[in-house]
Amino acid sequence: MRQYKEIKTVTNEMESITCDVCKKTYNVEKDWDEVQEFISVNQGCGYGSVFGDGAIMMVDICQHCFKEMLGKCVRFKE
pTM value? Predict the structure, then answer.
């Protein structure tokens, strides 16, 4: 006979996302087309980084701000 213990899990579901540049908030359900186009970076910084050794850099940018800031630098592959 097998006996099991109950395992309780916690799941987080994103409700909204705010652009770190323009500060506009998008609702996941209402603005799903905008939310899926967000550019998100979560990067650990290494030794000698200008952001600090061992720092964790995080940023969420909407597609509109990303295009305005870096649009001329972006390469595209079809």
Answer: 0.79
